[in-house]
Amino acid sequence: MLDLALLKKLVIGIGEVSDITGVPQRQIRYWEEKGVIHSVKEGEGSTRKYDYMSIKKIILVKELLDDGFTLDAAAKRVEERIKTIDEVFQALGERVEMKKDKKSDL
């Protein structure tokens, strides 16, 4: 089971992200310049760091590039997947809240 609180706090430097994902630092910087991913700003001149969602995007984009997609097509597909996942979890959250409200009315 994933600890969501821990994942929200997860911020890793570009070198470690590169090691973990197998994506070269130069490529990660390029993807950031293109707006595919975003680093966490921690101050002027500090090392680029990435949160859980950006690392997830890096992994997904890499997989799609390996499958033959262009960077633009891969980025678009990843954004669509994330949007769908967010919508599903939003709907699930609303259902849970409705059930809590019904229980408290009893």
Describe this structure in words.
- It comes from Paenibacillus zeisoli.
- One of its GO terms (molecular function) is DNA-binding transcription factor activity.
- This is MerR family transcriptional regulator.
- Keywords: DNA-binding, Repressor, Transcription, Transcription regulation.
- The protein is built from 5 helices and 2 strands; from the N terminus they run H-E-H-H-E-H-H.
- It is mainly alpha-helical and 106 residues long.
- The protein has a single domain (10-105), classed as Multidrug-efflux Transporter Regulator, Chain: A, Domain 2.
- A two-stranded antiparallel ribbon has the order 1-2.
- The protein is globular.
Task: List the SSEs and their pairings.
Elements lengths: L3 H6 L1 E3 H8 L3 H9 L15 E3 H15 L4 H35 L1
Antiparallel strand pairs: 1-2
Helix pairs in contact: 4-5
Protein name: MerR family transcriptional regulator
Organism: Paenibacillus zeisoli
Keywords: DNA-binding, Repressor, Transcription, Transcription regulation
Which word captures the global form? globular
Secondary-structure element order, N to C: HEHHEHH
Tell me the helix content: 55-70%
The CATH topology, please?
Multidrug-efflux Transporter Regulator, Chain: A, Domain 2
* CATH architecture group name: Orthogonal Bundle
Provide the residue-averaged pLDDT: 88
Total helical elements? 5
Q: Report low-confidence residues grouped into runs of 5 or more.
A: none
| Structural domain tally | 1
Q: Based on helices, strands and strand pairing, what is the structural class?
A: mainly alpha
Count all strands and give the number. Answer: 2
GO molecular function, one term: DNA-binding transcription factor activity
InterPro entries: DNA-bd_dom_put_sf, MerR-type_HTH_dom, MerR_fam
Protein name: MerR family transcriptional regulator
Keywords: DNA-binding, Repressor, Transcription, Transcription regulation
